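WARN retry 2 of 3 for item q-0093 after timeout on previous attempt; input resubmitted unchanged.
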Amino acid sequence: MTSYGLTEASPGTHSNPVYDRRLIKVETIGLPIHDTKQKIVDIETGQIELGIGEVGELIVQGPQVMQGYWKAPDATAEALRDGWLYTGDIGWRDEDGYVTITDRKKEMIKFKGFSVAPAQIEALLLEHPTVADVAVIAKADEEAGEVPKAYVVLRAGYERQSADELMEWVNEKLATYKNVHEVEFIDVIPRNPSGKILRRVLKEQERQKMG
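OK item q-0093 returned
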């Protein structure tokens, strides 16, 4: 990814410095463009600014930011706060100010008031030698509200991999509130043409199973 924008801040807010290829960090959305400010803030409060490497919500401020949604005051109040646009994208910034996007806020899993990023769990599971692809979604839970569930595609030749063993392996590397509560093996992870995981498809399948 070399640039970033959203409808509410057309045409964009971030870009890699294309004038000097030595400064491009292709895994990031780049730096804020001219006259644009950025912050990474705490996901829960939306107020506390986080430091380098800390994961939170990206908010931006600049002349390209919208004045509000048409005839939607509640949505406007949610998106625009104290002059900042809350993008709904989760990520972190490095020491040079480059931002890496990791998740959408609406896809975060809410476990007993804690926010759990699916992308973090997915990245860990992809380190396992038997895992070819993975998607993590929120599964409804009476006690916790939501818990992480992983859909996993196994590599050829590893069909005998145990779901319980894989779950134990990844949970050893996670804080307790981030623990995966179920692993289900599937043939393919649904994705859109650009490769983004279609979590809504998996969530709908999960709802159908639960009746």
